[in-house]
Specification:
mainly alpha
Length: 288
Amino acid sequence: MRLILLTTLTMMAFAANSVLNRMAVDGMHIDPGSFALIRVVSGAVMLGMILTVRGGPVQMQWRPRLIGAFSLSVYMVGFSLAYLTLDAGLGALILFGTVQITMLGHAARQPGGLRRQQLVGAALAFGGLVYVLWPGLGGPPYLSGAMMMIAAGLGWAVYTIAGRSATDALGATAANFLIAVPLLTLLLVGGGTSVTLIGAGLAIVSGAVTSGLGYALWYSILPRLDTGVAAVVQLSVPVIAIIGGVLFLGEALTLRLVLASIVVLGGIAIAVTTSPVQADRKAAPAQD
């Protein structure tokens, strides 16, 4: 029961990032760039504190960390910019679908490729994304938000693939966050800033609590979860984000979004549950 509660809490933390970001940026409490920068700084501080208490080192190996830090920065910026126009639930669905489809595409290039069931699942998930995006593209603002979230998903997928060889996931994540701080600063230099106390507070909560503590909790319970369960449980993140958007942001729960969620998440479920071995190879860490 304790494991179930901790897993549920972790998924809620990851989904909360979408709600917090949308609340801060769409509410005009902070600009997207400042939200991303404060989030990554807060996450770095929290992860550094956790490692200090735990006693483990921050894996500051600069060359292998640069890919992870850069892709993390792309994810952070794209994620924040997307929520200027996207609802929290729709954004989470696009992010999650993009990451998992990209991971499956990467796996298809490995020896042995993908099984038929995985190909079917990937095709369904991709079709679901096309369904939710194509008919609903009402103009450049909506399109730009979708493209930004797809870029964020690609960034997170690269981040996940690059981090697979890490022996200490938490230490590597802390290092990536630390290196991402100057990278994000360079990416955002020259941009206009607008930060209120509420916006900064939401960004700090997103970085320190729902990201930093969320990652620490996830890595602590991950070894106790079956690989298939760990893969499938992540399907709850977009669903929780959709519910959070409806409850806390007053977002509409449309039939298109519900149907697309069923198709996308159902396709991913088919793909990642082919067998314990395949699930272990293909499952990505939880998205936030």
